[in-house]
Amino acid sequence: MDLEKIVNKGINDLSPYEPGKPIEDLERELGIKNAIKLASNENPVGPSPRVLQMIDKVLKDTHRYPDGNATKLKEIISKKFNVNSNQVTIGNGSNDIIEFIARTFLSTDDSAIYSEHAFAVYPLVVKAVGAEGIEVPSKNFSHDLEAILQSIKSNTKIIFIANPNNPTGSFIGRAELLEFLKKVPENIIVLLDQAYFDYSSYEDDDVDFQILNDFPNLVMSRSFSKAYGLAGFRIGYSVSSELLANYLNRVRQPFNANSLALFAAEQALDDDEFMNKCLQLNLEQKKVLYGGLDSLGFYGLPSRGNFISFDCQKNSTELFNKLLNNGVIVRTLGVYKMPTFLRVSVGLPEENLVFLEKLKNMLG
Ligand SMILES: *Cc1c(COP(=O)(O)O)cnc(C)c1O
Predict the structure, then answer these.
(1) Tally of CB atoms within 10 A around 179
(2) Residue 94 CB–ligand 1 contact under 6 Å
(3) pTM surpassing 0.90?
(4) What residue's CA is closest to ligand 1, atom 3?
(5) Phi (first) and psi of residue 36, to 5 degrees
(6) Which ligand 1 atom sits closest to the C-alpha of 40?
(7) pLDDT in tens, 101-159
(8) CA–CA separation, 356 and 343 (whole Å)
(9) SS3 category, 226
């Protein structure tokens, strides 16, 4: 049997997505108990206490299927953000949504556009359906919106924009983004990936769901994995026109979001006090990291998220491994074509101090 000949054409070129190393793996390997993971942009504080207090109530009902329509969660989202419930699509993480969009709009004759150094899942979902991925060179580690418009081909169906982008942290402000959206032909779907929206909008100049009124070809996705602290539950959503949401729901598996995840998201959306505390902490601690990196001679790219990618001026693998052997997990960015960079997530104050301390010792 020759698997290479029988798998879907696009899949031969793919490598599996490489997640950040789990804490348990490193602790086992090093025989230590206090490893620090600053590798996957999770909320270091944890989930909202409301989630933990009440999740038992849901546990006892897990012999039942979840609500396949996620009625309650959609209602909470619709009230909180002033959109219609029918505009909301629920995903098993927002990565699920990214995949729905590729599967809904792309076939093998089509192409989709994303930026160099943009989130790794875009090329993955595009190639998995056998479509052509067009990677547009970035400008200063940011999306080059003009170049993206220039790269549109007659078979282009989707443009992916991560705002803020992971791993660069780059951010496109409101005016520039709206100007861009106006120039995109209306038969091309734009996915505006707002996985870090809570962080970026806490600063300023971001766009909310109301801009959907002007752009029927726009899908805006958000995640509960980052600021909401629910990465392990796997839950995210998008808001779009009702018409578009109806199409996305056709490719969605009937029970893609489990009951615990739905419940956790409902609780988390209701806890503004916890969220604000986390956002404030992130802003403060991001400054601490920038300051520390700067004093050690590292340039950190300006980031609107809860992470910083910094330049080591030489291949970063050695530094990555040294940090690992000292119990600190960060992320190399070789797959993002940034081999001299490391990405560090903003952790708790004590975690950030340990990271900076170990980094300093390493430089000797
Ligand atoms: C983390 C991340 C996501 C996906 O997160 P989910 O856990 O699937 O919700 C999407 N886009 C970007 C840019 C991310 O960094």
Answers:
(1) 11
(2) yes
(3) yes
(4) 195
(5) -120, 125
(6) 1
(7) 999 999 999 999 999 999 999 999 999 999 999 999 999 999 999 999 999 999 999 99
(8) 13
(9) coil
